[in-house]
Design brief:
Blueprint: H1 5-8, H2 11-14, E1 22-30, H3 34-43, H4 47-62, E2 88-89, E3 92-98, E4 102-108, E5 112-122, E6 128-138, H5 141-166
Antiparallel strand pairs: 1-6, 2-3, 3-4, 4-5, 5-6
Length: 174
């Protein structure tokens, strides 16, 4: 896969690419800020996603792993997106961020580390192109098995979350 220059221009993302086991980049455009996109993206949590978490619970047990339960419904606001390294955003931990430019978070589990990077490229005063990047590093064989089973759902979930974020019409808070 060819990595867009906008993604490679972010050092924190670029350093994760060489030894990644999986990388995908999905591109979206919309009339909203990076923080509005992130909030809309992470707050999307329909019933079918909760059902996927229930199936995941059974699946990870078969692999000898644990799941801490079904994540609660997120309620992030655009003016309260965590931006400092180590801060939590749902089940992700912020790795690096720069206001209005990019946001990189990680869900690090015993079987794999999954990074979510969102890069905002200004197109006009209000319109941006968003590069939603997933980078996965397997820690052990269970990470490979786990991710390859959930991969089709991963694409569906990311696309649905991004479409929901773009459907947001409320202005930025603060």
């Amino acid at each position: 896969m060819s990595i867009p220059a906008e993604v490679e221009s972010i050092p924190a993302l670029r350093q994760l690419l060489p030894d990644a086991d999986h990388v995908d980049v999905k591109v979206y455009e919309g009339e909203l800020s990076l923080n509005e996109f992130i909030a809309g993206f992470l707050n999307f949590y329909p019933g079918w996603m909760k059902s996927l978490y229930r199936v995941r619970w059974a699946f990870v047990r078969l692999l000898g792993m644990a799941q801490r339960g079904i994540p609660p419904v997120p309620t992030l606001r655009p003016d309260a997106i965590p931006m400092r390294r180590g801060e939590k955003a749902t089940f992700f931990t912020v790795e690096a961020a720069e206001a209005d430019r990019y946001w990189l978070v990680c869900a690090d589990e015993p079987h794999l580390a999954a990074y979510l990077g969102i890069v905002a490229q200004p197109l006009t005063a209000t319109r941006r192109r968003f590069y939603v990047t997933t980078i996965v590093h397997y820690h052990q064989w269970t990470g490979l098995v786990y991710f390859n089973v959930i991969r089709p759902f991963h694409h569906l979930v990311v696309h649905s979350m991004a479409r929901k974020a773009l459907a947001r019409t409320q202005p930025a808070l603060g």
